[in-house]
Amino acid sequence: MRSLKSYYNGKEGRVTDKWSLYIDEYEKLFSYYRDAKIRMLEIGIQNGGSLDIWGEYFHNAEIIIGCDINLDCLKLDYNNSKISVIFGDVNSLQSINNILKKSEEFDIIIDDGSHKSSDIIKTFAHYFSLLSNDGIYVVEDLHCSYWKDFEGGLYDPYSAISFFKQLTDIIGFEHWGIKKSRTEFLSRFTSRFDISFEEQLLKHIHSIEFINSICIIRKASPENNILGERVITGNIAQVNTELLDTQQNNTSQTPSQEDNIWSNIPKAPEEEYLQHKSKIKENEDIIRILKDELDGKNKLLSSILRSKSWRMTSFLRIIHKKLKPLF
């Protein structure tokens, strides 16, 4: 059976563009789905060459959809009947409806779109719900999240990579020990990008993996995402006898973290930083305005004092001139 790399190395016809690391990782990542009757969505297809490869590699695929905002993509014509192309902004209601008409569920979703943080986060909000359980959602070219031109930066709290980093905490929700929902935890992103997540949907996040420039989110039924029971077997405990007692109560017990300052701060530190920075800027503007007003009043006062000084000098000269003959 041909390797994925061989498909890329021997590719002719329509151009495809992937980093070599992606191809190596996809070889391992997609092998599980290779012979399955999968449904696949790729966002951002450019010249359409990748769809050629997916059509051959996933030889039993039921449907492979490519979506792109470039109108020229409608010129792409495929002999493979399972491949189709949708034109439009993937986050527009029209594109969402057009995709849903072809398939309401996908086993693999690849976001290779604009690479702008706002688009990536919105796309995940719109399409993760369409991913099947045991499916994978892949975001490519996350290195752009470190660049200003793509709405990112190393410490940008609203970059796509910051979003997925925060999403990793959703996996450990049962251990937070505080009264905060998953949706509330993501509120800084939902309010900024005008998106929403359902609490139940977020329970389906099974794992999040980062590879250089790639993020892979796996979806699974909620019961497969909890820690479950602690498995302790054997009956001889020469070092730690407490383990034998633990066998009787083997479920995870999360201690309350309501008094933990690092679990109960109202906002994430990076949000606090931006808030303080904004407040400092406001205060600096106020100080500048007050300083300008003070400078104006000082100039007016100086002008008045100079005027009074000139009048007093003139008055003294007159008095001196009149009194001079007397002496």
The number of E-state strands comes to 7
Helix-and-strand structural type = alpha/beta
Flag low-confidence runs.
none
Tell me the overall shape.
Answer: flat
State the helicity in percent bands.
40-55%
Largest sheet: 7 strands, mixed
Strand content: 5-15%
Helix segment tally = 12
Radius of gyration, CA atoms, in whole angstroms: 33 Å
Terminal residue distance: 126 Å
Strand order of the largest sheet: 3-2-1-4-5-7-6
Average pLDDT, rounded to a whole number, is: 90
What's the SSE pattern? HHEHEEHEHEHHHHEEHHH
Name a few traits of the molecule.
flat; 13% strand; 12 helices; 327 residues
Describe this structure in words.
This protein is α/β, with parallel strands linked by helices. Helices cover 42% and strands 13% of the residues. The chain has a 7-stranded mixed β-sheet, sandwiched between helices. Strand 6 (205-211) and strand 7 (214-219) form a beta hairpin. The protein is flat, with a radius of gyration of 33 Å. The protein starts with a helix and ends with a helix.
Could you write a compact summary of the structure shown?
With 327 residues, this protein is of the alpha/beta class. 42% of the residues lie in helices and 13% in strands. Strands 3-2-1-4-5-7-6 form a seven-stranded mixed β-sheet, with helices on both faces.
Topology:
Layout: H1 4-9, H2 20-30, E1 39-43, H3 49-57, E2 63-68, E3 83-87, H4 93-102, E4 106-111, H5 117-127, E5 131-139, H6 160-171, H7 182-185, H8 187-193, H9 199-202, E6 205-211, E7 214-219, H10 242-246, H11 261-264, H12 269-323
Parallel strand pairs: 1-2, 1-4, 2-3, 4-5
Antiparallel strand pairs: 5-7, 6-7
